[in-house]
Amino acid sequence: MCNGCCGCCSAFRPRYKRLVDNIFPVYPQDGLVKSNMEKLTFYSLSSPEKLDRIGEYLYQRAARDIYRKKYGFVIIAMEAMDQLLLACHAPTLNLFVESFLKMVQKLLESTEPELQILATTSFVKFANIEEDTPSYHRRYDFFVSKFSAMCHSGERDEIRDKIRTAGIKGLQAVVRKTVSDDLVENIWESVHMDKIVPSLLFNMQESGFHKKESNNIDVTSEDALDPPMLAETCLRELVGRASFGHIRAVLRPVFKHFDLHTLWVPNDFAIHTFRIIMFSIQAQYSYTVVETLMAHLDDNAKSSATIRTNIAGVLSKIIAIAAGESVGPSVLEIINSLLSHLRDSVRNEASQLEEKQYQEALINALGEFANHLPDYQKIEIMMFIMSKIPFPLVDNHSPADNLLQSILLKSLLKVGTKYQTIHLNTTFPVSFLEPLLRMSLAPDPDMRLLVQKILHTLIDRHNNLEKLSKPTVNIFDLELVLEKSSRPDLIFINKHGPIIYDALYTSLQMDTNTPENIEAVYTTLALLCVELASVETVIDLLQLILGIQSLSLNSTLLSNAQKFNLHAIVISLLALIPTIVSIKPLADYACQIIEQRKQEAPHLLPDLFSHYPTNSEVANKLPHLLIDQMAICEYVKAGGLDPSRLQQTSPYGAGGPGFVTGTQRNSWIESGARGSIIDIQTSEVDSACSSPGVQKKYTDEELTFESMKKVLTEPPEVRKEAEAERRKVLSHTFRTATFSELVRRTQPKHDVLQTKLNEIFNSLNSNENRSPIDEKKAAVPAYEQNFPELFYY
Amino acid sequence: MDDYKFLFKVVLVGNAGVGKTCLVRRFTQGLFPPGQGATIGVDFMIKTVEVGNEKVKLQIWDTAGQERFRSITQSYYRSAHALILVYDISCQPTFDCLTDWLREIEEYASCKVLRVLVGNKIDREDREIPTHVGEEFAERHNMYYLETSAKQSDNVERLFMQIAEDLMKQARSRDLPRYNSNHQNINGTTTPISDSSCCSGKFINAIVIFGKPTACIHCS
Ligand SMILES: Nc1nc2c(ncn2[C@@H]2O[C@H](COP(=O)(O)OP(=O)(O)OP(=O)(O)O)[C@@H](O)[C@H]2O)c(=O)[nH]1
Ligand SMILES: [Mg+2]
């Protein structure tokens, strides 16, 4: 091998060697001899077969100069090679490239930062040219290794940054060079990714204090992207080029890096990085990132809650980006995974503050995700979450179960908040509404409150929620937003109103209710009233508030404070209703009562408290301050509405436990099946159902009032006893039965009162359609309101 | 110059502060760096040595001992021909960690990698691990054992020369992890033993080209 040590006999040297020698000046600082370089280039172009020898010779010279530390000449040799590389684009280039890369490697191997940087620049130039015939045997392992090492340079300040920048640019070049053709070198192999990715992240994470530093150093660098910025660009490019099979190869080292460098807490950098990944990844794969993050949560099951909270925090920040792309099953997969993380967390017996924060973070992620899904998927998700809530809802649960229930309800609330109801019937399919109402009767008051909040957010379409969050009698101050309710809405409330009202009424009977619970029920009712303003719903609502009033008068279980609360929401609703559908006389009546109560019994007005002054008179002793059913009928009539249904007494019993009423109507159906009680009438009901619109037979009304009176005049002890019994049965039922069972359940037959009430209500209800006015507005037959179940099955 | 016949990759691992960087710099630059800072990520040095009239180029990758760089450093084990596992004879914890290091090596390095255990800083008075303890440990785990002082240049040269000789012997008997590729074999004068281990799931180039990956020849 000629090592170029025979300068003495240059005359006999091959021409290419002489041409190469001539490009070097006597003094390196004079730089490349340009005219001779042109000659060399021309020669290379005309004799391309010599190119590989020229390359080899240049390399040999440079290697020798490096050894002798004559770096000036090394730089010139490299420059010459660069020029030749760019000038010659022939198939012959291939062998030249080998020398070129050997040269680059040689420079990279030196300890001189300048040479390393120079080599990188040359490598970048090389990477940018397209080779006709890629060389399959060429490997880039060294370059990846070395550039990655350079990315971690620990040299002194400015040099450090220069070398790091070079390292990043080098990595970027390797990726560009290899990414398009797997045969050249599969850059996605973990050997490479495990070097490239941490090197980029390491530079990105330094940005914080790096920026502070660079303020002190004068900003001179010309083409200066600082290492963090450059690394970021490079990462974007890398992620953007990754196809599905490669995503994990990129992500795995990311997670490892974050773990090892403890970059999850705080999670600013993690959020930053994962946003970059999400925004640069090919959209259809974005959900893989979410999936991997969640898998990482799994891996961290044993880590501190703080770490998990922060990972979940990252999740919530990026999950929305994935939501847009997630379709079909992957959506539920993500939700399911989030829910199971929640469940796992709840099972973590020690539920300290950190664990709670973790759960909050997960719920946030869930909400963020749902927020960006189309509405139909939100309903799907809500139903899905619903299906995950453990049943039955009983009070002797393990704390974990209770916690899980309330956490899932919170998730539901979160998703619900992001959902914008258009039609109530799409928001509340029966399979969603039913379990929701069932949960509104849970033994735990907090849980009941959550359910009401879910109802609020789903029912409220006109942003009235805030205004109606507290009972008030000053309706005009509220500036409610009203819109005429649509026909589908009316059909909805006609169909489902009874079970909704029933559930609300029943929940008001709970002696564990706090003022908050009672307020929440008020809000639900007020929202229903506002959203469904119509003459039909008004009667139902009035019936219900009369029922609530009599509940507060007759209940033996509720405390006085709870009873006052009930009166307060009753009067608030009474004030609200006539302003919504504008029944002036009724509004005046409400005003009048309010004024009187202000004078005599402010404790029967909002606000609601849990304690009242001991001298607060019970409402039973203040009959003139109560809402009178007959008066209401009158004013309703005066307002141009038909009060007949109101006159027929409410389905909400005479203060009996609400479930009596709920089941009693249902038991009626069953009694028909059993052929007991009043055969004729039930058969009528049946036939009426099969042919809607058919009017029912006239039954004597007097009987009704008489029976009613009888019930009311019965000794209170009997009632009290029955009530307690009912209560027992009720809570037992809750513990064991499913909702549909509950709905269908018949009350025990030994209950005399019950049978009597059944009788009465049967006859009452069958009277309903008697009036001619009723017939007119009977677009939806009244019995359909009362027997929604018949239409479900 | 560059007409080396063999190219070997040597990777140094071990706890932070045991003196890896000092060993490398002693060997490649002949000095003991005062106030050597902790290595960040990976450092790289090169030295060409002569073994029985043959030029052998050693690519030395000096890894950071700090835990946080473990992800990047591990990725360098894979292509190593020799691994030097260093501990500090005056610091028991660095010795206690050896089993952890071995586990990592087991996991990430080639199964045929030459492994050498080095107890460094023998110039220090406050030795905590007697020679025979290190020796026994090495023996138990099929490693060479050597005690060095980067400071006083004891055994440093010998360490790397021994490795070069051994790898060359292995290479001659073709027992070294390698590709069948003739990578960079431009002028036929060098026979670089190229990158990557038999365990990293890489395949012989020719096979990859024809799109038919087969199992790793060294592991199967
Ligand atoms: N007395 C003595 N001190 C040594 C010797 N080798 C290294 N040191 C000292 O040990 C300290 C750490 O040496 P390094 O070479 O930086 O250790 P390292 O293993 O590279 O550490 P990391 O890069 O953090 O993994 C330095 O202060 C050295 O001066 C030795 O042989 N004898
Ligand atoms: Mg070091």
From TrEMBL, chain A:
| Residue ranges of the TM segments | none
Please identify the protein, giving its name as recorded. Protein EFR3 homolog cmp44E
Q: Name one GO biological process term.
A: protein localization to plasma membrane
What are the GO cellular component annotations? Answer: plasma membrane
Source organism, top-level taxon: Eukaryota
Among InterPro entries, the record links this protein to:
ARM-like (IPR011989), ARM-type_fold (IPR016024), EFR3-like_ARM (IPR049152), EFR3_Homologs (IPR051851)
Family the UniProt entry places it in: Belongs to the EFR3 family.
TrEMBL record, chain B:
Q: What are its cofactors? A: Mg(2+)
Keyword Magnesium among UniProt keywords: yes
Q: How does it sit in the membrane?
A: Lipid-anchor
Gene3D superfamilies to which the protein is assigned, alphabetical: P-loop containing nucleotide triphosphate hydrolases (3.40.50.300)
List the GO terms this entry assigns under cellular component, sorted alphabetically.
autophagosome membrane; cytoplasmic vesicle; Golgi apparatus; lysosome
Q: Per the annotation, which location comes first and is thus the protein's main one?
A: membrane
Which reaction is this enzyme known to catalyze? GTP + H2O = GDP + phosphate + H(+)
Q: What GO molecular functions are on record for this protein?
A: G protein activity; GTP binding; metal ion binding
Write out the similarity annotation: Belongs to the small GTPase superfamily. Rab family.
Question: What PANTHER family is this protein classified in?
Answer: RAS-RELATED PROTEIN RAB (PTHR47977)
Identification of the protein by name = Ras-related protein Rab-30
From what organism does this protein derive? Phaedon cochleariae
